[in-house]
Specification:
heterodimer; A: 579 residues; D-Maltodextrin-Binding Protein, domain 2; 3 domains; 6-stranded mixed β-sheet; 23 helices; 42% helix; 11% strand; B: 304 residues; mainly alpha
């Protein structure tokens, strides 16, 4: 009783303080030259530095946030973040299970939807419904946040436990981006050198890559290069590299099932499905001698180094182009470009209006002062200043304002993903990559419009950048394929299915399904890797059949049945959103 | 307080061993409480309640289908073979200690001993990174063989499923040999020097001395260690196999401890892992009693 009264008094006090602050404005933001600090942050007492533990499933870095983003956090909010990254801990689920069992996941918790639901049920997450709408920037996404929380199991009216990530305000079926998440990407000059062949099927792609590898057995530094490199450390129920390629042929892997762009659903182990097809693609590539022999034993970092070092000739995800493409490379025709295959039908979900399937929340163990400071941080995180910083970097270092009042990347900004860009000491020092935001997830996506400029937060769509990126590569590509970008090409040639992105909290596995899923997953991954290295097509098929037999003995049907029912809800929601 | 000096001394002696009794209770007996998890449907973060009691479900589920039986059999086979190889070669450290002791040049002897003991302190994760840099497709071994033009294509050593048991045994021996020999070296130094002198006076040569004096004096140590190893037959550790395992060699490398780890940590299936560990403890106990009985019968002495 007494406690809740105290809380009320505190809450009222804070609200009052914030209102005053909002009226009087806060000086600090203006000092930084951004002048965009319209958030409620800065209201509370910031004299005490606070450190928060962030349990973050998206992070690829473990430890304190340092470098330029650390400097920004200290400067704007006087906080430090200590990031716990299950992905780099070696065994993500082990870390999760142990921390969850101990009852304290972290002060700020970033999880996949289903895990978040479990943690809410277990009382590990704090209800912030009483305070969240005092924060103006978070309130902009009230509709999406409420939609997600209303859908949570055991949610009461007005409670808010989790904030979806990667939201935007363009509407549920919109697709603004100019790239799709996965399609074949090859270096333009090598493609032209190989005679710009038309790709009818994946066999032609293998032939093309083989020719390229024969033309260029090493990179310019003399390191051995292979057309395709793979890495096992992202594997879940099945090989992640294969999962990404199933999207070329209209299906997306979700656990044990394949969901198609035509809203159908079938088991992963269906021989007519895209998983079998694309696994076979890797096998055929291996037979052609163009798969890196270290694929099954290396980790993502080695693979990543190879991509940066031009020792790989095929990439698939759109973000991988960030490793290789720059305006200078584009002018030299060295940029990677998307290459359509005639029989392909790309699966692409619309922009994540309702969030991307991950959510952020506050741990239930934080004190009221910490809660306020975390909420301030989250509000700043989706304020124009916060978003511009996350999506591009610090003003005047990474970008400047031009005569039209629009933003323009600086030289450092242009090279930030491809070179070692040093950050001035006054902004935290170090290089850009090391100091980048290691939370690695955004509450609001880069395609959201910045009210300051009327352009997106992501520099990819700035008029200045688009103009700069009109290079020899893009011009020749446009001429060859008759479209200004891959999305336009796919839409014009009817080679893609765009389905609405649905973000809902789905039921998590019970112990039986979890056990069966884990055992089946290990079997699928192991068998798949062996199949890539099969010595003949008969052996490949024989291994596939053996795998299916083994899976049936491990309870595969129960997993498929569970997933089919689970994802039927998504499909229903998609059909509803399309109408 | 005490009736006589004897009682007082007994009490002081008790106090001296009390910390160890407490440690044993805390770290060896208290954890047995965790066995209850084997009978519940436990899934963190949800708390365990009486509704989730499932009886022997997890024990039964281990053998509920042919595939699972096959898996368990293969895991047990790997465990037995690897432990079998280790047990049947456990005389090697003894022999190593004996020969080491025969080296007259002290500096060289110390060097060999240090060089063989050192790997014991390197963690398995580091051992694997050494193995990876030596044996990957562009590693030292492949470059070397390719420079000699013995091979054209790199050999994928780490991916090979041939000779897994042998190579794993070699890695283990490389890491453990010197360490395991320490016990024997100290046993050798406690052998009565007079026996050697008497043998020499009687005209025994080096081999004779080793065979008739050193080795028989080491046997009691050897048998004690052997018995402890038999008790640990099912637990050959998981670190080594965890770092070396991949899709290609898993069929031969997955031992019981690794299997339990994969089950529990991959899916949060703590209950079934506890069930397996329980079975393991019971089997280990039985093996230990069996070995003790055999020792009693054959050698007339036991350790229990």
């Amino acid at each position: 009783m007494k406690n809740s009264f105290k809380k009320k008094v505190l809450a009222t006090g804070l609200t009052a303080a914030m209102t005053i602050a909002a009226v009087t404005g806060c000086g600090k933001g203006a000092e930084n030259g951004s002048g965009t600090q319209t958030s409620g942050a800065g209201a509370g007492d910031h004299s005490e530095e606070m450190t928060f533990e962030v349990y973050d499933v998206a992070a690829n870095y473990q430890g304190e946030q340092t470098g330029w983003f650390g400097w920004v956090l200290k400067d704007r909010l006087n906080i430090k973040l200590n990031i716990i990254a299950p992905q780099v801990s070696g065994d993500a689920s082990q870390l999760y299970q142990t921390r969850v069992a101990s009852g304290d996941l972290g002060d700020i918790v970033l999880l996949d939807n289903a895990d978040m639901q479990d943690c809410i049920n277990a009382g590990l997450i704090m209800d912030i419904g009483d305070e969240i709408w005092n924060y103006p920037n978070l309130s902009k996404y009230k509709e999406q946040i409420e939609a997600f929380n209303g859908n949570l199991e055991g949610a009461s009216d007005g409670s808010v436990f989790a904030i979806p990530l990667e939201m935007n305000s363009n509407g549920p079926t919109d697709y603004v981006e100019n790239t799709v998440s996965s399609m074949p990407r090859v270096r333009w000059d090598y493609y032209v050198e190989a005679g710009s062949p038309e790709l009818k099927t994946t066999d032609d792609l293998i032939d093309l890559l083989k020719t390229i590898q024969e033309n260029h057995p090493t990179n310019d530094d003399g390191d051995k290069a292979y057309a395709i490199t793979m890495w096992p450390d992202w594997d879940g129920t099945s090989i992640e590299n294969v999962n990404q390629l199933t999207k070329w042929y209209g299906e997306e892997v979700n656990g044990s099932v394949l969901i198609s762009g035509e809203n159908t659903i079938r088991p992963l182990t269906d021989k007519d499905g895209a998983y079998y097809k694309m696994l076979k693609f890797f096998f055929q590539a291996q037979m052609a001698g163009i798969v890196d022999p270290d694929s099954a034993t290396q980790d993502w970092n080695s693979a990543c180094d190879k991509m940066r070092g031009s020792r790989v000739y095929l990439t698939w995800n759109n973000w991988m182009q960030g490793f290789t493409n720059t305006p200078a490379n584009g002018e030299a025709r060295k940029n990677f470009v998307p290459l359509p295959i005639d029989d392909m039908n790309v699966f692409q979900t619309s922009d994540s209006y309702y969030g991307d399937g991950r959510v952020i929340g506050i741990g239930s163990g934080v004190t009221p002062e910490e809660k306020t400071r975390i909420l301030e941080f989250l509000d700043w995180y989706c304020s124009p200043d916060g978003l511009q910083t996350q999506h591009v970097g610090i003003q005047d270092v990474m970008y400047t304002v031009n005569a039209d009042g629009k933003y323009e990347l600086t030289e450092a900004g242009l090279n930030r993903f491809t070179a070692d860009v040093e950050i001035p000491e006054e902004y935290g020092g170090g290089n850009f990559t090391d100091g980048n935001n290691n939370i690695n997830q955004w509450i609001v996506a880069g395609i959201e419009t910045n009210p300051e400029t009327g352009e997106t937060y992501s520099s990819d769509y700035w008029a200045s950048y688009v103009e700069l990126n009109t290079t020899a590569t893009t011009k020749e590509w446009e001429e060859r394929f008759g479209a200004k970008d891959e999305v336009e090409y796919l839409k014009a040639n009817d080679k893609a299915d765009f389905v609405p992105w649905i973000n809902m909290s789905l039921p998590s596995d019970d112990t039986d399904v979890a056990l069966a899923r884990s055992q089946c997953g290990k079997e699928i991954c192991d068998a798949s890797w062996r199949m890539v290295w099969a010595t003949s097509e008969e052996e490949f098929d024989q291994m596939w059949d053996e795998m299916v037999t083994t899976l049936n003995g491990l309870g595969w049907e129960s997993v498929v049945a569970f997933d089919t029912e689970k994802y039927q809800a998504v499909i229903d929601a998609r059909i509803a959103a399309m109408q | 307080m005490f009736k006589n000096k004897r009682e007082k001394r007994a009490f002081i002696n008790f106090l001296l061993i009390a910390p160890f009794i407490v440690l044993t209770l805390v770290f060896c007996y208290y954890p047995l409480y965790g066995w209850v998890y084997a009978f519940f449907d436990y899934r963190p973060p949800r708390p365990m309640t009486i509704d989730s009691f499932v009886g022997f479900k997890w024990f039964k589920s281990l053998i509920e289908s042919d595939v699972k039986v096959k898996q368990i059999v293969s895991v047990l086979r790997n465990t037995f073979v690897m432990s079998g190889i280790t047990l049947s070669t456990s005389w090697i450290p003894m022999l190593f200690a004996v020969f080491l002791n025969e080296i007259r040049n002290t500096k060289f002897r110390k060097f060999v001993q240090t060089a063989t003991t050192l790997p014991n302190f390197i963690s398995w994760v580091l051992v694997y990174s050494i193995a990876f840099s030596l044996f990957n497709s562009t590693g030292m071994m492949n470059s070397f063989l390719q420079k000699l033009t013995l091979i054209d294509e790199p050999i994928l050593f780490l991916q090979a499923s041939d000779h897994v048991w042998l190579t794993q045994w070699l890695w283990l021996t490389w890491k453990n040999l010197g360490w395991a020999a320490i016990m024997y070296i100290s046993a050798i130094s406690s052998i009565d020097e007079e026996m050697y002198e008497a043998a020499r006076v009687d005209g025994a040569n080096r081999w004779k001395i080793i065979w008739t004096i050193t080795i028989p004096n080491l046997l009691p140590t050897f048998f004690v260690l052997l018995m402890i190893n038999i008790g640990n037959f099912l637990s050959n550790g998981m670190e080594q196999y965890y770092v070396f395992h991949n899709a290609f060699n898993k069929e031969y490398i997955q031992v019981l401890d690794l299997y339990v780890f994969n089950l529990a940590m991959g899916s949060g299936s703590y209950s079934i892992s506890v069930a397996i560990s329980m079975l393991k403890s019971i089997v280990s106990l039985a093996l230990l009693f069996f070995a003790n009985g055999v020792s009693k019968m054959v050698r007339g002495e036991s350790i229990l």
